[in-house]
Design a protein that fits this description.
- This protein is mainly β and about 210 residues long.
- Helix content is about 10%, strand content about 60%.
- It is built from 1 helix and 14 strands.
- The strands form 2 sheets. A 6-stranded antiparallel beta barrel has the order 1-2-3-6-5-4. It has a 6-stranded antiparallel β-barrel with strand order 9-10-11-14-13-12.
- Strand 9 (about 110-115) and strand 10 form a beta hairpin.
- It is globular and about 50 Å long.
Length: about 210
C-alpha cells in the first residue's frame, strides 16, 4: 500500500465513523505522520473522540487541489487531553471527488427530498445547508440512508431544479442530521445555474466583508 500525497499539500483529513452510541459522526484532524502501513492524525478536542475500534471508516483527504475519498480501517484512538490521536490503516487508493472550482456555499434553499426505503417512497420538505455544482448537503430530522439513488427538487433563486442524487455521508448536527449527496443525474444547464448561484453568493459575501 502506498500513500502518494505530499503531506505539505494536505490541508486536513476528515473521518466519518460510528461513535460509541453507534451513531454516524465526523471529525477533522491534521496528519501527524505517515508510514508504509499507518496514518497518524491528531486533533484538539475538549472531550476527546469515543468510538469502538477497530472499525471501517470513510476517510477524506482535503488537499490544495481538491478532495479525495476512500474507505479504510480506524485501528485505534488515543485521547491525551487536550489532544486525540487517530491511528488509521493506509488505504489502497483514493477516489478523486471534487475539484476546487466546485466550491460550496452555505445557503438555505427550499427543497423536497424524495427517496425509497424498504420499497416505500418518502418525501421530506427541508432546506439545503450548503450546495455546489458537484453536490449538496441537506438537513434531515432523522438518520435515513436511501436504498438507491434519490431525487431532490431544489429552488435556486426561484427556479425549481429536479436533480438525481447519490448518498455520500451523514453528519450529526445539533438535534438533526446533515446529509450530503453527489449529483447522479443533472443537466448541464442546471449545473451551470448552481455554479452561477455559488459565484453570486460568494461575491455578495466578499462585498459584505469589504463594507
Amino acid at each position: 500500500m502506498q500513500f502518494k500525497f505530499d503531506i505539505k499539500n494536505i490541508l486536513y483529513l476528515k473521518m466519518l465513523y460510528k461513535d460509541s452510541n453507534d451513531k454516524p459522526s465526523t471529525t477533522k484532524a491534521a496528519i501527524k505522520s505517515v508510514s508504509e502501513s499507518e496514518i497518524v492524525a491528531c486533533a484538539k478536542f475538549e472531550d476527546g473522540v469515543f468510538a469502538y475500534t477497530p472499525q471501517d471508516v470513510t476517510l477524506s483527504i482535503i488537499c490544495s487541489d481538491g478532495l479525495y475519498r476512500t474507505q479504510t480501517l480506524l485501528k485505534s484512538i488515543k485521547n491525551e487531553d487536550p489532544y486525540t490521536y487517530l491511528y488509521l490503516e493506509v488505504p489502497n487508493g483514493f477516489e478523486y471527488q471534487q475539484n476546487r472550482e466546485y466550491f460550496r456555499i452555505c445557503v438555505n434553499f427550499d427543497c423536497t427530498y424524495t427517496y425509497k426505503k424498504d420499497e416505500q417512497e418518502y418525501k421530506i420538505q427541508t432546506q439545503t445547508c450548503n450546495i455546489s455544482a458537484n453536490g449538496v448537503t441537506i438537513i434531515l430530522p432523522k438518520f435515513e440512508v436511501p436504498d438507491e439513488d434519490a431525487e431532490l427538487s431544489v429552488s435556486v433563486y426561484g427556479i425549481d431544479l429536479l436533480i438525481g442524487v447519490r448518498y455520500v455521508r451523514t453528519e450529526v448536527f445539533e438535534d438533526c442530521y446533515k446529509v450530503s449527496f453527489t449529483y447522479s443525474e443533472i443537466t448541464e444547464s442546471d449545473r451551470d445555474l448552481i455554479a452561477q448561484a455559488c459565484i453570486k453568493q460568494q461575491l455578495e459575501l466578499r462585498r459584505k466583508r469589504a463594507d
